[in-house]
Amino acid sequence: MPIRIPDALPATSILESENIFVMTEHRAMHQDIRPLRVLLLNLMPTKVTTETQIMRKLSNTPLQVHIDLMRMKSHASKNVSAEHLETFYRTFDEVRDERYDGLIITGAPIETYDFEQVDYWDELCEVFDWSVDHVHCCLFICWGAQAAMKHFYGVPKYMLDGKCFGVFENRLLKPSSPLVRGFNDISRMPHSRHTEVHYEDIVANQDLEVVAFSDACGVSIAKSTNSKHIFVFGHPEYDRDTLKLEYDRDVAAGKDIAVPVNYYPDDDPTKRPVVSWRAEGQLLYSNWLNYYVYQTTPYDLAEM
Fold first, then answer.
1. 3-state secondary structure of 212
2. In a domain, 185, yes or no
3. What is the C-alpha to C-alpha distance for residues 295 and 291, in angstroms, rounded to an integer?
4. Nearest to 70 by CA among 59, 81, 58, 85
5. At what angle do helices 10-17 and 47-59 cross, to 10 degrees?
6. How many CB atoms are closer than 10 A to CB 60?
7. Whose C-alpha in 216, 222, 232, 290 is 20 to 30 A from the C-alpha of 197?
């Protein structure tokens, strides 16, 4: 089934070229069905890439999904045109009176900063608080997950001795969770971060539970026990070359960056990366959309 996005969004032509069903706004308006409303707060500097990756995952389900894109008004984006932001992105002031079935907040390459040092932290906290009464279920990714853990549950983040960079195996600690329905016992997920949250801090809070854990990089997936907050500390939506582009960029800049682990054949960056996370990555987004949004959200969002 289709994903419903603006016809002129760059992701539209990319997804159509991949034979993904993208529905025009005109056609969607003439279907007697209420699409799920999902708000994507994109904090990544590479906004077009990130919005395309996440929309690709949301499109591969039997549900019609209407996506609104949001940016932080208090932050000036440098890696995307002002025209793109003006055309496709809304600010919090423009959506604060609306209600959504789902909210996705992405990561951001700022995890080495204290939360309060981030220029849009106050605005983001306002979005967090607004989501309690205006969003049915939230999905937080990487730094977005760490920020939400801190804001809602007081769980701190910690600096790592070295960057967690590569594709890591995860064990299911709660295989009965619908969030990981269809996962293998051992799955893989890309990670790219300098900080982490600790397993002990999460399970010490009776309102939280850990769903998947990596012996190499710690907690990968957690959630609130009321299923309103989903935390993913990696990037299951990444493309084949996302870690490669990051690695090549840092090498070109002369940074001390290790080859991403479990990514290149024989750890040789001259070889084509192997995708080993795509199936579970798709399942995670599909399961979230189905079991935690569609199956439980009210038909009339005013009843939220």
1. strand
2. yes
3. 5
4. 85
5. 50
6. 15
7. 290
Q: ∠ CA(30), CA(95), CA(149), 5° rounding?
A: 115
Token pair for 294: 């569609």
Rounded Cα distance between 153 and 122, Å, is: 17
- Known binding positions: 163, 192, 249
- 2 occurs within a structural domain: no
- Give the structural domain span for 221: 34-241+279-303
Q: Report CA-CA distances (Å) from 49 to 8, 72, 192.
A: 15, 17, 16
Give catalytic residues, as residue numbers.
142, 235, 237
pLDDT (tens digit, 0 to 9) for every residue of the chain, 304 residues total?
455 666 667 766 776 676 555 555 555 554 456 789 999 999 998 889 999 999 999 988 878 899 999 999 877 777 677 787 788 899 999 999 999 999 999 999 998 999 999 999 999 999 999 999 999 999 999 999 999 999 999 999 999 999 999 999 999 999 999 999 999 999 999 999 999 999 999 999 999 999 999 999 999 999 999 999 999 999 999 999 999 999 999 999 999 899 999 999 999 999 999 999 999 999 999 999 999 999 899 888 888 7
The one-letter amino acid code at 94 reads: E
pTM value?
0.88
Residue 230: give its domain's CATH number: 3.40.50.880
User: In angstroms, how far is CA 296 from the centroid of its own chain?
Assistant: 20
Annotated binding-site members for substrate: 163, 192, 249
Residue 259 located in a structural domain: no
CA Rg, the chain, in Å? 18
Split into its structural domains, the chain has a count of 1
